[in-house]
Amino acid sequence: MENNKSEIKFYSAYAGGRPVRLSQKTRSFCRDSLNGRYGDEAMKTPFLTLDPSFGATGENAIYDVYDEAIRLICEKAPLRLCDEELVSGAATLGSAISAQVPVKLGDNFVCPSINHLTLNFFRGVKCGVLSYVPEILERMRDPELTGRQKRHLRSILSVIESLKIYHSRYLGLVREKRPDIYKNLKNVPLCGAVNFREAVQSLWFLFSFTRLTGNWPGIGRIDLILGDYYERDLARGLITEEEARELLASFFIKGCEWVRGVDAPRGSGDAQHYQNIVLGGTDEEGRDVTNGVTYLILDVVEELPIGDFPITVRFNKKSPERLFKRVAEVIRHGGGTVACYNEETIIESLTKFGYPEREAARFANDGCWEVQIPGCTRFSYLPFDGLGVLLNQTLKIGSGVIPVFDSFENVLNAYLGDLKETCGRLADSLLDSCLEDRAAKGFDADFRPQPFATSVIDLFEDGCIENAKGYLEGGPRYSVIPLHIGGVPDVANSLYAIKKLCFEENKITLEELLKILGNNWEGEDVLRTYVRSKYTYYGNDNPEVDSIAAVVFDSFAGFCTEYGRKYKLFIPSGVSTFGRQLEWLGSRTATPFGTLKGEILSGNASPTPGTDREGATAVIKSYCAADLKKQVTGSALDVKLFPGTVSGPNGTECIVSLIKGLMNLGGYFMQLDVTDAEILKEAQKDPAKYKSLSVRVSGWNARFVSLDEHWQQMIIERNEKC
Amino acid sequence: MLISKIQRFSTHDGPGLRTTVFFKGCPLKCPWCHNPENKKFTNEIFYTQKSCIGCGICEKVCPNGCHSFENGQHVFDRTACTVCGLCATSCPSGALELCANDMTVTGVFEEIKKDVPFYGGNGGVTLSGGEPLAFKEAAELLDMCATEGIDCCVETSGAGIPEVTEKAARVCRTLFFDLKDGNPERHLENVGVPLENIVAALKKADRAATGDIIIRCIIIKGLNSDAGSYSAIADVYNSLKHAKALELLPYHAYFGSKNVQLGGEDNGDASLIPDAGDMAFASQFFTERGVNVI
To answer: In CATH, what number does B45-98 get?
Structure first.
């Protein structure tokens, strides 16, 4: 590998740097794209505007507006053709980057974006989009259909017509300039792809078309879609491994076309557009699908630091050793691009929930990691703060009322009661907002009609044509909105501290503790230091606290089961916060385990920052103490590793050991992120958050925060240098 | 036995993912010891000044008046300290800690077993220290691990109990064996035992070994970095049947911080750190003599 010959360097947390396999042209294309060139370019044309004279009235007006908007986009959106690209198509309207269908009528956008779903691009690539036309026409003959349903189907046909317009504009653009692309694009995506080059072009064109029209879909199992094409062409000598890698790299780089430059406004860091990709895993027949495309994609993200597409790899007992090794080699570069699913837990979870086995085997996700059956599932989720329930409802901190509990069991049971009440209230309001007349009709209650159309999505969501209904109106085969609990590790830590302090060591009564928390630990530094440094919290493989977390997780799942599949809208359980632990700060008080109001606490099912001291294996064991099969849409664990810990060939093997350990213990999802000297600097500024951080120089080891500035600086420099 | 640390998810103490057990106590007296908290066989108090919140609890609980506060600054006078540990258990911030826990073999084994789901084909346990083989319990621990199919490695300075060292050689997949200086006079002066004793232990271990031996050499600039020393070490290496490689470890001065925490001086000496040229010289010297340098 010619690392030294490339003038373009991409950052890596791994001392050995990233390998170089791709051409200079492709690498410079990647650099420009990641620097925000195309994202900034898209902002020059944020949206198109419908003719003000356009008026639509009547019951089907939403479809008239929608069809006109999609047609306008396809006729007028700027086309982009980059010299370096090997696949064409581009989402060039800037407002789509902020989740809008980029068309305005007057001052308003015509309709909102759809996201958190993975579409069925499989059929579009294999059979071509035109294959839907006879099916829609046949469906429209059904005399039972309402006028709205017929209009809805006609709207899907209109999407196909608009796509044809857009496609012919692109063909016109590339015919002379890029005959190579013209050849690949000529027949797809209207017809099925017949070779690998066409398949990659078709998939990109369909994906970028859905993004151009303002949606944020995921792609799902890309190696399953493209693998057969590649293996066949490779065997026939129609393509080489290098050519295929360049093509897929182009696909990934094009996927960065929404990355904005440095001058773009900064937000919550939520830069991802849910364009997830899933690799590996078994198919409906139980065969492992890992193939040449799987490895080529890992090559691409090993070389290019592309974090969006986020990749999750489905691991199972049949996964090849090579797959584990390659994933570990990518992970060590940092950035957390590749995460891991434990297929066994997930498939069992989905089948227990009631999905047929063949459906469960197909699982992908919604763009983050929440599991869904791709291409046939309407999905969103309702998050809530499990810690807020404890602090505000159960313990009533800061309310002026001091509740009385005479045992730890009573505290725990009161919390579980409040949690149950919260889940019931949220599920009821969710069902009533989505379903019409639920009380009277029960399972037969139908989805409420929506005031806007979603026909681009409906084309790629199985069930929408068959049911002649839109994505949000019960069209897809499954409609799923799980409740997602957050803050459970903080809840477990809080309850554990109460148990130790007030009911075992009797250092203080619960009433006194609650008063102290109401005052944000003011004047109680010694006690606060004690609970922070002397107790062993979630994330350290301490069964005493992990069992509390498990009871909370499992009980929450149980409360959701009471809804489950009782209505046409499924309500499973899941665990997530993403960045929501920031939003929840305002409603959270100080906690019994020593955090102050305003401190950022646990994310997803991961330990509260600064409380895990025993290393990655202990974190994984705490996480796996709950029955994760009960969290149907998933429960995510984020594990941070330091580059020095996983350097060298043994480092790769240790990453593999963590993944296999997760599988042995029944884990669900894990993201391993390798962080670098920057983290050490942060630890220097904010030692409380990095108490567990050990630094290691051959045989010597010490806790970083226990070193003075002089020593810390040395270690930082050492890490920066390697 | 005193165990200063059981470090899970160790990635640099042998193959695969391992749990490393640090025994407290070593018969040698090397002034450059990288883990000085594991030199004494008795427990010690580890004091991290920057963690002290000045609460004064240690002053109240100490029966010997070792802790006092001057101008709000904690002063720890160790002369009368009996290491009763009362200050450490009462210290709310962890500024005062006992270096080690007194553990049973079973207690240590339970900790090792916690990460069995992660060890896989290559990982396991590594006994380190201090000098783990100076503890007869280490033999028992190695047997328990072997019975459960947990892979074992040992990091030894060669100054362990002969029977335990032999047991380790028989049981371990890899024995990491230190040779600290090839010059007999300097070795005796700095390490405190004759070099020939260490070499004899190594040869005995080599005869008993079923796995590999990796020789580890610390390179201390100007102190043990001469060709004469290297030559003697290369001869020993080449006389062994199971020597798989020789690992060169550059001296570093970081250990001084831990000496301060133990109440001593920061005796790390940056002038002893070998530069790239010194390391290259050592590497070339050994390689030319048929040694597999890693």
So the answer is: 3.30.70.20
